[in-house]
Amino acid sequence: QMQLRESGGGSVQAGGSLRLSCAASGRTYTNSMGWFRQAPGKEREGVGCFSTRGMYTAYADSVKGRFTISRDNAKNTVYLQMSSLKPEDTAMYYCAAANIYAGCSLSAGNYPYWGQGTQVTVSS
Asked: Average model confidence (pLDDT) for the chain?
């Protein structure tokens, strides 16, 4: 079983930055990590994902150029660096893990393992 734990959320003013962390533990093999977010009353949406197969990354159009995924293998941790934050980025952010054959996915249904989430609030 895999366990994921997010941290790093908080409150920030528009234009600011935050870095979220997702620490992974467990013996289950996964090759893809995704970051998702869900605002009240809205569906969970994919923000970005990363695959160790070919070091592939993908981002939602709404965050391209502002968010960056990176990882520290020694710490089994994946990061989501968020810059130029906007009020519409306010949401609960989740990391997720999966074993995906090709690339990675921004679809939540493809991920069986999830963290508990960390709240990001951006004020105008």
From this structure: 94
Q: What torsion, rounded to 10 degrees, do the Cα atoms 116, 23, 90, 67 define?
A: -150
Under 8 Å between Cβ of 33 and 104: yes
- Answer for the pair 68, 60: CB distance below 8 angstroms, yes or no: no
- Matching residue, tokens 């994921």: 4
Written as six digits, the tokens of 53 are 């197969």
Task: Give dist(CA 63, CA 73) in Å, integer.
Answer: 24
- Predicted confidence (pLDDT) per residue in 36-75, tens digit: 999 999 999 999 999 987 678 999 999 999 999 998 888 8
Residues present in the chain in total: 124
Instruction: Give whole-number Cα distances, 86 to 43, 70, 104, 124, in Å.
Output: 18, 21, 26, 8
Q: What is the pLDDT of residue 36?
A: 98
Rounded CA-CA distance 18/120 in Å is 9
